[in-house]
Design goal:
By secondary structure, this protein is of the alpha/beta class. Helix 9 packs parallel to helix 17.
C-alpha cells in the first residue's frame, strides 16, 4: 500500500479526480494540479502522447503566469503576436496538436481543441489587459481572479448605456483640457491629455464603490490631471476653476494659498439609484508621492470612527505617476504599512498613470525593473497593466481591482499605459529630448475620437447622437466661462472642522484635574488582570507609580504622561501614539503595552478606560520616519477631537521625514486651510552620545515658525507635559505641537512633579523658580535639560547672584509675559542666553533678536561654538565643554 501511495498511478488517479471535481482535493493538491509543479513537467515533455495533456495544462499555466509579456498595452508600440516562452515547442506540442481535443479549464467547457484553448488564453491575458497575479501565494486569491477574468475573457459585455456614459466622461476630460489650452495659453495646468481614460476609470471606481457600500473615498494624487479630476470627478464648479486661472484670489485662496494644481476638495456626490458617496481629495505639494501615507492616515481615522465596518466603508485610492511610483522610496514605505495592525486600511486601490516618461527621463534611465509597478509585488497582490486607448478595458480592470480589494482586504494595482501630449508642463518642449517618441504622440488622435469611431462601428450610437453629447459638453464649458464663481465658503471645505476656530487665541483653557480623579485613575491603571503576569521589573515600576499617586509622593515623567492620557480618555477623548518602540518607549520609561511573561499576551492598561466611542491606540511603527509621520499627520486631519502623537526614536531622526514637516505640518493651514493638531515627540538633549543621538534640530523648527502656525515647546517637568498635552486637545483651535522631550530627565531625581501641580495651575510658558529680586546681577534664560545642569551648578557654588528663567514655549514667544517677569529684576542685571547646542543650532539665533527687544538690553551668548556636527562623539570632551559653559554662566574663574 505504501508503494502505491508513492507511485505515478496514485498521482494519476488524483489528477483524474481533480479534473472531475477540484474541490474534492486538498488545497495543496489543487495548487499542484493548477500548475505550480506542472511547469517543471513541461521541460521534460517528449513526444509521448500520454504526456501531452499535462503539456496543455502547463501551457495554460504559462499563459496565466507570463501572458502579460505579450499583452497589447502600449499605445505607442506595435503589439506582439508571439513570445518564445509561449511557443508550442516549449511544451512538446506542435501545430498538428492545434485541432486535437484536450481537457481544458472549466471556463471553456470540459474539452476543447488546443486552438480554442490558446484563443481563450490570449484573449484573457494577451489583449488590452496584461495581468500579473500568479506570484500571489494564496490559491484562493488566484482562483478568485481566474474565475472573474477567464469566463469573460477579461472583456465583459457592457450595455449601450454604460458605453455612452464612458464616452461622455472621455469627452468631458478631453474638452476640459483643450478648453483650458485655448482660453489660458501658456499657463501651467499639468495636462491629462494622452491619459484622459483615467477619468473614466475613476468615475467607474466612484460608482462601483457606492454600489458596494463604500461611503467615503479618500483620494491622493500628484499634480498631473488634478484639475481634470477636480472638475469632472469632484464636480468643483468650473466657474471657480476659471477664476483661479484668471488669478481672482477671492475665489480660490485661503491664507497664503497654493497653486491650483496642488489643492484638494471634499464633496458629497449624488449617484444613480439614490446612492451617494463622500469624496475627499487630499492637497499635495510637488513632492509627488508624499501624500501617499497622508491619505492612508486620513482613511484609517475615518475607518476607526466607523468601527468594525470601517475598512469596508472607507476606501483609500492613490493615483501615481510611473516614474514616481518606481523611484520614490515613500511608495515602498506606504505599501509596507498596508498590512500592519496600527496602519492597515483594508487595502488601497492604486491607479498608476504611466505616460512612459518622467519630466525628460525615459524608463530605461528611471528604473531597473520591467514594469513601473514591480515594487508592489512585495505585497503579493494583483497588478493589471492596461492599454489607455481601450477605455472599456481600463474601466473593467479598475472595477476588478476594486472588487479584489473589497473581497480580500488587500491593495490592488492598475497601471494604465498612455502618453503625455505635451512636455512636463505646457510650456516645456519635449522634442529636445524625445523627438521620436513625440513624433508618434503627434500622430495619435484623442482617445475620445478613437472610442467614438468604435461606438459607431459597433452600432452603439449614430454620429449625430454622439455629436449631440459632444455639443452639450462644450456648451457647459462655454457657459461656465462666462459664469459667476461661488464663494469659497460654499464649497464644502470644512466638514467636521467647521466648529474649530481658525484664528490664533492666546487664551489657555483649564487643564487641571481634581486630585481624587487622578488617584482613582492611577489605581485603575495599576489593577492588572489576575491571570496576567508582567515582567517583575515592569510590575515593580507600575506598582511604584500607583503608590506615588495614591500616597501623594512626587512622580516622574512616565507617570505624568500616562495620567494625562488616562484623564483624556476619562473625559471622552481618543488618544493615539505611534513611533519606533513607542509602546515601551525608546528609553524604557512608558510601558504603555505590557507583555505576559509566560504567554506573551498583550495588555494595554489605558485601553481599560475606553468606551465604544473613544479609544487608546499605541503602536510600535515600522522603521520609517517619513511614511509613519505622514500617516499620523493624515490621521490628525480627521481627528479634531482627539490627541494624535508621533514619536521619533531619537529627535535626530526626524529629518528623515523632513518633507512631511516642511510641506505639510508647517504650512498646511496657510496653504490649504487644513488644520492639524498633530503632536511630535522629539527626544532631545546633550549627554555625550554624539551627533546622531543629541539634537532634534530645534533651530530648524523655529525657522519654520510664522503666523502662529506651530507650537514649539520644551517642557522641563512632568507637570508641564501633563498640562501641555491636555491644552492641545482643549484649545478651541488646532495647530501642530512640536515637543522636545527629554532623555536623561526621564529618571532625573530633580525632574519630578506632584499631584497638586496637576490639579492646580496649568501650562507655563515661562518658569521663574527664584523669587524675583533686584539683588540679582545676572539673569540667565535657558530652555530644556540645561536648566537642571545650571541648577546643580548653582547649588554647588552656592550662587546668589544669578537668576535662572526657563523658556518653556519657544514659539509663539509670549512677549508680554516675559516683559512682566523681567520688570521685577534690576534693569542693570546682565541678560544671558545659555544653551548646550552649538551657536548655529538650538534656539539662540531665532530668539536672540526678540529677547534683546523684550529685555531692552544686550543679550550675551553662553554655549558651544558653531559646529558642523550637532555634537561631539567623545563623552569626555562633551563633559569638558559642558562644564566650561556652566562655569561661564556663573561668571566663575577658570584655570
Amino acid at each position: 500500500m505504501t508503494d502505491f501511495l508513492h507511485s505515478p498511478e496514485w498521482v494519476e488517479q488524483l489528477y483524474l479526480a481533480w479534473q472531475k471535481d477540484p474541490a474534492a482535493l486538498s488545497r495543496q493538491w489543487q495548487a499542484y494540479f493548477s500548475g505550480f509543479q506542472l511547469g517543471e513537467i513541461a521541460v521534460a515533455v517528449d513526444s509521448d502522447e500520454s504526456l501531452k495533456p499535462y503539456a496543455v495544462q502547463s501551457l495554460i499555466y504559462r499563459y496565466r503566469d507570463i501572458g502579460h509579456l505579450m499583452a497589447c498595452i502600449d499605445p505607442l508600440s506595435p503589439c506582439l503576436t508571439e513570445h518564445p516562452q509561449l511557443a508550442l515547442a516549449e511544451f512538446g506540442l506542435d501545430e498538428a496538436d492545434l485541432d486535437r481535443t484536450f481537457r481544458s479549464n472549466r471556463f471553456i467547457r470540459d474539452a476543447a481543441t488546443l486552438r480554442e484553448i490558446i484563443a481563450v488564453m490570449r484573449e484573457t491575458y494577451c489583449g488590452s489587459i496584461g495581468v500579473e497575479f500568479m506570484h500571489i501565494q494564496d490559491p484562493e486569491e488566484r482562483r478568485w481572479l481566474k474565475e472573474r477574468m477567464e469566463p469573460c475573457r477579461n472583456r465583459p459585455q457592457l450595455s449601450a448605456e454604460v458605453r455612452l456614459e464612458i464616452y461622455r466622461e472621455l469627452l468631458e476630460a478631453t474638452r476640459f483640457e483643450s478648453f483650458l489650452h485655448k482660453k489660458f495659453p501658456g499657463q501651467k495646468r499639468f495636462s491629462l491629455e494622452g491619459g484622459e481614460t483615467i477619468i473614466a476609470a475613476l468615475q467607474a471606481v466612484v460608482k462601483k464603490s457606492a454600489e458596494m457600500g463604500i461611503q467615503t473615498l479618500v483620494l491622493g494624487m500628484a499634480h498631473r490631471g488634478r484639475l481634470n479630476v477636480l472638475a469632472n470627478v469632484f464636480h468643483k464648479p468650473l466657474e471657480n476653476m476659471f477664476a483661479e486661472f484668471r488669478d481672482n484670489m477671492e475665489f480660490g485662496f485661503v491664507g497664503d494659498g497654493d497653486v491650483k494644481y496642488h489643492k484638494g476638495l471634499s464633496v458629497d456626490i449624488a449617484l444613480a439609484g439614490d446612492r451617494s458617496i463622500h469624496l475627499t481629495l487630499a492637497p499635495n505639494p510637488s513632492h509627488l508621492e508624499a501624500v501617499d501615507p497622508v491619505v492612508e492616515g486620513k482613511a484609517r481615522a475615518r475607518q476607526d470612527e466607523k468601527g468594525k465596518q470601517g475598512e469596508a466603508e472607507v476606501l483609500p485610492v492613490l493615483m501615481h505617476g510611473d516614474a514616481a511610483f518606481a523611484g520614490q522610496g515613500v511608495v515602498a514605505e506606504t505599501l509596507n504599512l498596508s498590512q500592519l495592525e496600527g496602519y492597515r486600511t483594508g487595502g488601497t486601490l492604486h491607479l498608476v498613470l504611466n505616460n512612459q516618461i518622467g519630466f525628460t527621463t525615459l524608463p530605461a534611465d528611471a528604473r531597473s525593473t520591467r514594469y513601473a509597478t514591480d515594487v508592489a509585488k512585495m505585497l503579493m497582490v494583483p497588478i493589471f497593466h492596461v492599454n489607455g486607448e481601450d477605455p472599456e478595458a481600463v474601466v473593467w480592470a479598475a472595477s476588478l481591482a476594486l472588487e479584489y480589494r473589497q473581497r480580500f482586504g488587500k491593495d490592488a494595482v492598475m497601471e494604465m499605459l498612455c502618453f503625455r501630449k505635451y512636455g512636463h508642463n505646457e510650456g516645456d518642449e519635449p522634442n529636445f529630448t524625445q523627438p521620436l517618441m513625440y513624433e508618434k504622440i503627434r500622430q495619435r488622435p484623442p482617445v475620445s475620437d478613437l472610442y467614438r469611431d468604435h461606438l459607431i462601428a459597433a452600432a452603439v450610437a449614430s454620429t449625430a447622437e454622439l455629436e449631440k453629447i459632444n455639443a452639450a459638453v462644450v456648451q457647459r464649458l462655454d457657459r461656465a466661462f462666462d459664469g459667476q464663481p461661488e464663494s469659497v465658503s460654499d464649497l464644502g471645505f470644512y466638514g467636521k472642522w467647521e466648529q474649530m476656530l481658525r484664528e490664533y487665541s492666546a487664551v489657555d483653557p483649564s487643564t487641571t484635574v481634581d486630585r481624587q480623579t487622578l488617584v482613582t485613575l492611577g489605581q485603575q491603571l495599576g489593577d492588572l488582570p489576575k491571570t496576567f503576569t508582567p515582567h517583575p521589573k515592569v510590575a515593580k515600576l507600575l506598582n511604584e507609580r500607583m503608590q506615588a499617586i495614591v500616597e501623594g509622593r512626587p512622580f516622574d515623567w512616565g507617570n505624568a504622561e500616562t495620567l494625562c492620557y488616562a484623564t483624556l480618555l476619562h473625559e471622552g477623548f481618543s488618544v493615539r501614539l505611534s513611533g519606533q518602540d513607542s509602546r515601551r518607549g525608546t528609553f524604557n520609561h512608558r510601558h504603555a503595552a505590557l507583555h505576559d511573561l509566560h504567554t506573551a499576551a498583550l495588555h494595554v492598561p489605558l485601553s481599560t478606560l475606553c468606551s465604544r466611542l473613544h479609544q487608546f491606540q499605541v503602536y510600535d511603527s515600522m522603521l520609517s520616519e517619513v511614511a509613519v509621520l505622514g500617516f499620523e499627520y493624515g490621521y490628525s486631519l480627521e481627528t479634531p477631537n482627539g490627541l494624535v502623537i508621533w514619536e521619533a526614536q531619537f529627535g535626530d531622526f526626524a529629518n528623515g521625514a523632513q518633507v512631511i514637516i516642511d510641506q505639510f505640518i508647517a504650512g498646511s493651514a496657510s496653504k490649504w486651510d487644513r488644520s492639524s493638531g498633530l503632536v511630535m515627540f522629539l527626544p532631545h538633549g546633550y549627554e555625550g552620545q554624539g551627533g546622531e543621538h543629541s539634537s532634534a534640530r530645534i533651530e530648524r523648527f523655529l525657522q519654520l515658525c510664522a503666523e502662529h502656525n506651530l507650537f514649539v515647546v520644551t517642557p522641563s517637568t512632568p507637570a508641564q507635559l501633563f498640562h501641555l498635552l491636555r491644552r492641545q486637545v482643549k484649545l478651541p483651535f488646532r495647530r501642530p505641537l512640536i515637543v522636545f522631550t527629554p532623555k536623561s530627565l526621564l529618571r532625573h531625581p530633580a525632574c519630578q512633579s506632584t499631584l497638586s501641580e496637576l490639579s492646580h495651575g496649568g501650562f507655563q510658558a515661562f518658569i521663574d523658580a527664584a523669587a524675583p529680586s533686584k539683588k540679582y546681577t545676572r539673569i540667565v534664560l535657558c530652555s530644556g535639560k540645561i536648566y537642571y545642569d545650571l541648577l546643580a551648578k548653582k547649588e554647588e557654588v552656592k550662587d546668589e547672584q544669578v537668576a535662572i528663567i526657563r523658556i518653556e514655549q519657544l514659539y509663539p514667544l509670549m512677549a508680554d509675559q516675559l516683559t512682566t517677569i523681567l520688570a521685577q529684576y534690576a534693569k542693570k542685571a546682565e541678560l544671558c542666553w545659555v544653551q548646550e547646542e552649538p551657536a548655529n543650532a538650538g534656539a539662540w539665533a531665532y530668539l536672540a533678536p526678540q529677547l534683546e527687544k523684550i529685555g531692552k538690553r544686550p543679550l550675551r551668548y553662553i554655549g558651544r561654538r558653531a559646529a558642523a556636527a550637532t555634537a561631539v562623539g567623545s563623552h569626555r570632551l562633551h563633559q569638558e565643554v559642558q562644564e566650561k559653559l556652566l562655569t561661564e554662566a556663573f561668571n566663575l574663574q577658570t584655570d
